[in-house]
Amino acid sequence: MIHKSLQEEIEKILPISRIRYNEPMDRHCSFRTGGPADALVFVRTEGEMAELLTLLRGLGQDFFILGKGTNLLIGDGGYRGVIVTAVGADAPDTADDLSQSGQAAGSSSDAGPLQENSPALDEIRVQGNRVTAGAGATLKAVAIAARDHGLAGLEFAAGIPGTVGGGLVMNAGAYGGEMKQVVRSVRMLMPDGSLRVMTGEEMEFGYRTSVLRRIPSTALSAEFELEEGDREAIRARILELAAERRAKQPLEYPSAGSTFKRPEGYFAGKLIMDAGLRGYSVGGAQVSEKHCGFVINRGGATSTDIRRLIEDVQKKVFEDAGIRLEREVIFLGEF
């Protein structure tokens, strides 16, 4: 439980309408599982983020920065602390139809006292061949904004169901593209409250990792450097990749996407299939029969089911092939 004094301090920074206590996290994670967080708060601007994190760090309060919850498994016991997100629970997906025009900039209503002159965390701006996007903007929305301005290089990101911030943490990628290829710079909020701009090289992007996984800082926005291209060709490529995803991935079930990192020289899905685990289940959790690299919630799964299945797969693949599969999915909270 959040102490009353902390509640009062948070409510000085954010409107009460954007603070939820004892919030069930199955509503905010793509596995559709997870117990309650002591508090879930929705920030809209860089100023709100900075002031809130300064408060939480100063009080020694545990917190976690949440994007769209697409690479996360929260325990059935929930999270004892404050979960901070720049993704509004009732915010529309700004590019749900990939064949139509996307929204080129975010908008922030009910922004609270720090909105004035403070950049919105879902804002997207295009200037020349560069796109600047807040950490709370979805990768899909950024890719569509780039497409609408005839800028190529982010087509791979249109089908990744996360935010810019999460994409920077994980060096998100698909179909031969990754953040490392297109990120020119990142504005960072450092633990002492100072701002720092890091170049793409300084971000130390690697396979599903970046400097954000090693230092306790928070991405506020990123600048992408893209190439001029033909709008219709870019659109066609986005639709082509979307069709390939639908054909090969179990998008009809809740999941966190690819559950495991790709071992060097191997494919996780094939190792899992070769170990005889296609369709393997624990409770409502299952290794997808469509793509063995995905663990899905077939209905009624708990986070404990999913975690146990993941650990079973790791154990059995190691016994079968001598290879230790490393999770992409982050475990958070009490199991």
Structure description:
- This protein has 335 residues and is of the alpha+beta class.
- It contains 8 helices and 19 strands.
- The strands form 6 sheets. It has a 5-stranded antiparallel sheet with strand order 6-7-13-11-12. A 4-stranded mixed sheet has the order 1-2-5-3, covered by helices on one side. Strands 15-18-17-16 form a 4-stranded antiparallel sheet.
- The longest helix is centred in the last third of the chain and has 19 residues.
- The radius of gyration is 20 Å and the shape is globular.
- The two termini are 17 Å apart.
Number of strands: 19
Global structural class: alpha+beta
Gross morphology is globular
Q: How much strand content do the residues show?
A: 15-25%
The averaged pLDDT comes out at 92
Which key terms come to mind for this protein?
335 residues; alpha+beta; four-stranded mixed β-sheet
